[in-house]
Amino acid sequence: xxxxxxxxxRPDTGIYNAKLGIWLFLASEVMLFGGLFSAYVLxxxxxxxxxxxxxxxxxxxxxxxxxxLALSAITTLLAWAACKxxxxxxxxxxxxxxxxLALSFLCVKSYEYHDKFIHYEIALNDGTFAxxxxxxxxxxxxxxxxxxxxxxxxxxxxxxxxxxxxxxxxPVNSKIEIKVADxxxxxxxxxWHNTYTAIYFTMTGLHALHIIGGTIVIFYIWAxxxxxxxxxxxxxxxxxxxxxxxxxxxxxxxxxxxxxxxLT
Amino acid sequence: MxxxxxxxxxxxxxxxxxGAKPIDDLIVWVHYLMAVLFVGWVAYxxxxxxxxxxxxxxxxxxxxxxxxxxxxxxxGVVLAEVVLLVGIAIPLWGKNVQKFPDPKDAVVVQVQxxxxxxxxxxxxxxxxxxxxxxxxISDSNLFGIDTNDPAGKDDxxxxxxxxxxxxxxxxxxxxxSKDVIxxxxxxxxxxxxxxxxxxxxxxTFTPNKLGRxxxxxxxxxxxxxxxxxxxxxxxxxxxxxxxxxxxxxxAATPTSFE
Amino acid sequence: xxxxxxxxPPYRPDDADEAAAHDHGHAHHEPNFLSKYIFSTxxxxxxxxxxxxxxxxxxxxxxxxxxxxxxxxxxxxxxxxFGSLIxxxxxxxxxxxxxxxxxLMGYAISPELYNAFGAMHGTIMVFLGxxxxxxxxxxxxxxxxxxxxxDMCFPRVNMASFHAFFLGGVVMFASFFIPGGAAxxxxxxxxxLATTIPTNGQAFWLxxxxxxxxxxxxxxxxxxxxxxxxxxxxxxxxxxxxxxxAQFVTxxxxxxxxxxxxxxxxxxxxxxxxxxxxxxxxxxxxxxxVGMASGGGSPLLWQHLFWFLGHPEVYVLILPAMGVVCEIIxxxxxxxxxxxxxxxxxxxxxxxxxxxVWAHHMYMTGMGQTIATFFQITTMAISIPSVIILTCLFLxxxxxxIRINTPMLFAxxxxxxxxxxxxTGLPLGLAAADLYxxxxxxxxxxxxxxxxxxxxxxxxxxxxxxxPKMTGRKMNEFWGRVHFWxxxxxxxxxxxxxxxxxxKGMIRRMSDGGINYSAAHVPGAIDxxxxxxxxxxxxxxxxxVGLGLSQIPFIINIFASMWIGEKVGTxxxxxxxxxxxxxxxxxHGNFPSEPHVVRGPxxxxxxxxxxxxLPQAEFPNAAHAAHAxx
Lengths: 264, 258, 630
Ligand code: HEA
Ligand code: HEA
Ligand code: CUA
Ligand SMILES: [Cu+2]
Prior knowledge:
The complex is a heterotrimer of chains A (264), B (258) and C (630). Chain A has 264 residues and is of the alpha+beta class. Chain A has two domains: 17-115 and 195-263, Cytochrome c oxidase, subunit III, four-helix bundle (Four Helix Bundle (Hemerythrin (Met), subunit A), Up-down Bundle); 119-188, SH3 type barrels, CATH 2.30.30. Chain A is 58% helix and 14% strand. In chain A, helix 1 (17-46) packs parallel to helix 6, helix 2 runs antiparallel to helix 6 and helix 3 (88-117) runs antiparallel to helix 4. Chain A is elongated and about 75 Å long. The mean pLDDT of chain A is 91. Chain B has five helices and eleven strands, in the order αααββαβββββββββα. Chain B has helices spanning 2-10, 20-51, 69-98, 150-153, 238-250; strands at residues 107-114, 117-122, 156-159, 161-166, 171-177, 182-186, 191-195, 201-205, 211-214, 216-217, 231-236. In chain B, the strands form three sheets. A five-stranded mixed beta sheet of chain B has the order 3-2-1-5-8, covered by helices on one side. A three-stranded mixed beta sheet of chain B has the order 4-11-9. Chain B has a three-stranded antiparallel beta sheet with strand order 7-6-10, with no helix packed on it. Chain C has a domain at 427-573. Chain C is built from 20 helices and six strands. Chain C has helices at 2-7, 13-26, 33-38, 43-73, 83-90, 111-147, 155-174, 193-196, 201-229, 242-274, 299-333, 340-353, 369-396, 406-423, 425-429, 431-437, 441-471, 477-503, 531-564, 622-629, and strands spanning 96-98, 104-107, 285-286, 289-290, 596-597, 617-618. In chain C, the strands form three sheets. Chain C has a two-stranded antiparallel ribbon with strand order 1-2. In chain C, strands 3-4 form a two-stranded antiparallel sheet. In chain C, strands 5-6 form a two-stranded antiparallel sheet. At the A-C interface, helix 1 and helix 4 of A face helix 9, helix 10 and helix 11 of C. The structure holds heme-A (2 copies), dinuclear copper ion and copper (II) ion. Dinuclear copper ion is lined by residues 113, 116, 182, 217, 219-221, 225, 228 of chain B.
């Protein structure tokens, strides 16, 4: 006996194996991100008053990425439709778009990451805090030896709380040169900075991994499955549909991430 | 009856706190239910194994038991559980976590667990705890009491040994932890509460027997978990307690080990 | 019904075997060792791979436990026989013991090492022992056969699942050998402890867990899809053997409960590796050192995420076991299972409820009235379907013609053993009672009665029961009974005393068995552990050794019977379900010709038939197929 329903639907369940498989897989994915979102909620509600950041991310970039993914969702759909009507050329075109959109999403994301990694909060010995993007380090810069200077484009505040909420006012930044000797503690806005950056990097990072994985799969089908298109277009179409379902899920996750991370 | 069952069948130690009896009763009641079910089922079980062994019952009958009895048993179990739940367990827990004594007429102690021992802190004569700051913590300042806060000046703090409390007077404990999760368990008082870093959880009990009771650390907290046995609840008379408190405040260095 | 019975010939081994043989002839490429055993995609091979691995891990987990029991009974004394082995593996965590003269007596187990053993015993037994044996091994081997499928839905995914499992096992095992030793924060890995212990063992544990979780997820998807899509014609939902139902629900539990732990694992890994503080509150002062982390996290968050898996997980440990017991009881009472429908609905109900009881492991974390009320109610509620399941199994015995053999002995023993474990769960479910019992050996006894003489016995039963299907030979009956009776006695001698210790207030996870809390150690203090309770430690150790020895006949039996076991036909137990109506061992593709299911799973002793069992399926094309080859 051979395994049935690999391509055609099973009459009484009305679905073929791979499609059911991906739906089940997505169910577990929902629980995965569900767990992370509930972690987010607990951390945020548990944060000490005034210490949960707002407006730390660039909404414009977030919106741009949202649009990119939304478009990729559409092209994915069209690519599948193209397969349905057996138009291989259209399929090639639309999924090429999907892949390009995905890549540009990743570029934007990595720019945002980089922006956080060069963004420093520096506790000074006099109890104030310097905060801003790293401009340059003097050649003899050395935290241990406390020699040299560092220049940031940013501002100095007396209370960390002032760094937390950037929704209302845009801080006026200026070049500031700081002697390393005056530095108590200096840390960039990486995951370790606080629970917000931690959950931000974890969730967007995990999402980015999904994007990468999805892109690889789609690219594989796009580039290497020409033979199957000839021999077994039905199965080929199913593959496109299944990978498409996964892709739409990844987009959906972003639709939740965007408001949670950028807007609130 | 319940007490007899608790001591001789279950082997629970004699309680030494006012609130303990209801807890014991609950445990005993549940075990009655368990015992009945167990004995009943095992009896049935053994009978069936004997009665319907293939040697005695060569061909099985297709239908099997038609008796409604099992339905009754199941319904009985449900009812019993509902009674235990609604009648005893839920209200009891409510009492446990909601009814706290007024600090004024209780012995108030701050207990802070650490690897691997207990820190106690009393408010001292003024009955006020001084400000705390984790940054000030040192082995001479266990709770990191802010030294330039007057309320803190007369606070009594020390590490391990006896936690003094007064007979028949409610004890109000604010439980926390410096490092990892520990658990504050005094068997005779029927109290258990995890000590969780970052949280400050109140617990209360009213000792009604003199004596020196072992404090267990019930939660795995590292290599020294099994030897975190240096803490005791010392239940004494009001006079003895006051005497002791004097000696502590007289030697009013922020720490005085016991 | 009768008509169809006439119409189609029932399964005739010889025809089918020939057909099978022929089939094989068609399969031209002779599979070499690698593709046959390592990279096989055949659900039967994968099932056996899982089975063998998990049995080895069970043995290993038990070995760790023996060392722990020795340590509990003889704290800080040199470990006999295995001392130098441990020292070789774990280095200074197994410190040398010297006598006054200063010459080496052997190597002991340090508290840290004890904690590592404890954490790994729990982890290995649950995630590398029982789950892969109950779900992956039996599920893989039996489910497709029972539903009349040629294989799993996604054979390659199936293989990937096993490889992920294998890797996970390797990572876990390797962590014993790294400096600092394996994870030491219990199988529950509570933060901050898990993050503050200076060893990479925890990182290994987390990576291992992520691999094992991935494996389970792939498996779960595969099982559900297979059961939904590949049921043979006529195999309606209500004709599924209950074992399949149990596996079906188990798969859903794994699918939906595991991912949150995966998330939690990633977060804790970040805490350990990247210095985030998801689970670390502000102002931690570990070993007097303040500000080791940026803070702001919540230790309870970890506990919620862990137990959201942790509780459903325990039903993953028990449901397949119940399924095995159900099949064996039906077969050896020679009568239909009593209340099949209520069994089905109960198991679905358990599966659903198991997602909303998790916080009954957290009553003592300072839980308020409302939340506690909710979880007490759900916890009591979930005991009801379990009671119903047990009741059905018990009543199935009534009116049967009970045939006693090794599988049946283990299956029968399961019932009261699970009964004890389950019943002792009830007081734990009531917060105020749990207040007294929490983190004592009462808990240890509770859950071991459900997982060890419960699940484990059921799985032993399964091994004896399906062994003939896998090998074509029976395991030795006499040694099987020796294995059963010794295991049964010693198992109870091990765990029964723990109830007594727990009620007297002996705390779990103590590397010295409670010496520091013993009356001898702190004279005059109340609530210390009396002498007789301490002495039980020694008796439990002795019983555990006995339990270990009792496994020798089993291990020998399992290997020896492959060659000297009594040869049997395709259906040695005169069973009804489809797994017994294919050639033995089943060919690639399982069924020489498509089975057509015509009746329920347990048609034993149906009136008006001279045979006392009616096969579930018929093989309309078998005859023709056979003819075609003549
Ligand atoms: C297979 C595993 C398994 C199963 C099935 C169960 C079943 C149950 N468990 Fe258990 N439990 C564990 C494994 C399991 N548990 C583990 C591993 C832990 C510890 C984790 C850790 O901290 O490390 C634990 C801990 C644990 C706790 C936390 C205790 C604490 O830490 O303070 C609680 C509290 O509610 C609990 C409750 C229950 C309940 C109410 C059931 C109910 O589902 C039981 C329902 C069953 C019955 C009611 C029996 C019905 C049978 C009959 C009525 C017939 C009787 C027949 C005869 C006697 C012949 N369990
Ligand atoms: C499925 C789960 C499972 C199983 C089966 C077991 C089985 C056993 N467990 Fe374990 N145990 C746990 C899960 C389990 N345990 C967990 C989760 C903990 C908590 C850990 C923690 O605190 O974090 C724990 C903790 C725990 C403790 C408490 C330690 C402490 O708190 O300090 C003890 C103490 O005695 C113990 C003992 C035993 C014993 C004697 C067995 C025996 O029943 C073992 C029986 C097994 C065998 C006899 C081996 C059978 C295998 C074979 C025969 C293989 C054959 C091989 C081939 C054919 C190749 N266990
Ligand atoms: Cu502190 Cu265990
Ligand atoms: Cu549970």
